[in-house]
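Per your request, structure below.
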């Protein structure tokens, strides 16, 4: 069994997801957006994309990986 890719070339390939932006975000469109695919091969992962490029690539993280990343950033 092979591992799933950890990115998709176009976030538009993640059908039926709802992209969310932080409430701390400004209208300058310079932040990241997240979504949680509920179906398909990426179900259960967290997708992250650049809000300036909504059709661009998205990175995919497990819940554990994302929690570790955000905890690490919090300590910077």
């Amino acid at each position: 069994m092979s591992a799933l890719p950890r990115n998709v070339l176009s976030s538009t390939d993640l059908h039926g997801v709802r992209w969310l932006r932080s409430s701390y975000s400004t209208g300058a469109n310079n932040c990241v957006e997240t979504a949680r695919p509920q179906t398909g091969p990426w179900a259960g992962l967290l997708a992250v994309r650049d809000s300036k490029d909504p059709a661009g690539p998205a990175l995919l993280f497990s819940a554990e990986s994302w929690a570790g990343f955000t905890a690490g950033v919090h300590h910077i």
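Helices lie at 63-74.

Regards,
D.
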